[in-house]
């Protein structure tokens, strides 16, 4: 795990940086990204809260970074009530912005108590958007950011994401 900027307040990056008296430098992020791409075959860039989250000021948003780095998008959505609207809006917006969407991963299923919406939402969204479901991840142990202990998160991802579809979906 690598962070060019690690900000403590759980806020949009531009505001967290301002409150932490830190400047988010896009050129530094790009430099770090390029060095990681040289070192690793696959580099995953995690967004922060959705497409329209401001990264620097209020004019440099997440889609600007995605375009700058020519990244495909994996949408991570919640599985429960309300996700159809939220996820379909995100997909349509991403498409309108010209972003390439690899697929959708649904995160946070309570596998012992699935609601009807959790059971049906991924299929409905896939039919509405023509974007494949890459995975359905059940709730797991919390990630401890301070110690970088990720509990069983990696195991949950390995066991619940279709990596063949992810890597071969063009």
From TrEMBL:
InterPro entries: DTB_synth_BioD, P-loop_NTPase. The keyword Nucleotide-binding applies. One of its GO terms (biological process) is biotin biosynthetic process. Its EC number is 6.3.3.3. It comes from the Bacteria. It is an enzyme of class 6 (ligase). Keywords: ATP-binding, Biotin biosynthesis, Cytoplasm, Ligase, Magnesium, Metal-binding, Nucleotide-binding. One of its GO terms (cellular component) is cytosol. The keyword ATP-binding applies. Coiled coil: none annotated. It holds the Pfam family AAA_26. GO terms for molecular function: ATP binding; dethiobiotin synthase activity; magnesium ion binding. It catalyses: (7R,8S)-8-amino-7-(carboxyamino)nonanoate + ATP = (4R,5S)-dethiobiotin + ADP + phosphate + H(+). PANTHER family: ATP-DEPENDENT DETHIOBIOTIN SYNTHETASE BIOD 2, DETHIOBIOTIN SYNTHETASE. This is Dethiobiotin synthase. It comes from Thermincola potens (strain JR).
């Amino acid at each position: 795990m690598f962070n060019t900027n690690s900000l403590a307040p759980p806020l949009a990056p531009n505001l967290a940086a301002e409150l932490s008296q830190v400047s988010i430098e896009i050129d530094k992020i790009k430099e770090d990204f390029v060095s990681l791409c040289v070192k690793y075959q696959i580099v995953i860039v995690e967004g922060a809260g959705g497409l329209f989250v401001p990264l620097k000021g209020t004019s440099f948003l997440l889609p600007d970074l995605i375009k700058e780095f020519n990244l495909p998008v994996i949408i991570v959505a919640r599985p429960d009530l309300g996700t159809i609207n939220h996820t379909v809006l995100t997909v349509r917006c991403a498409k309108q912005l010209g972003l390439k969407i690899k697929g959708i991963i649904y995160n946070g299923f309570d596998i012992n108590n699935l609601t009807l919406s959790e059971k049906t939402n991924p299929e409905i969204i896939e039919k509405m958007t023509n974007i494949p479901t890459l995975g359905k991840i059940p709730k797991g142990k919390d990630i401890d950011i301070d110690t970088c202990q990720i509990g069983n998160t990696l195991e949950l991802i390995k066991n619940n994401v279709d990596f063949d579809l992810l890597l071969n979906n063009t």
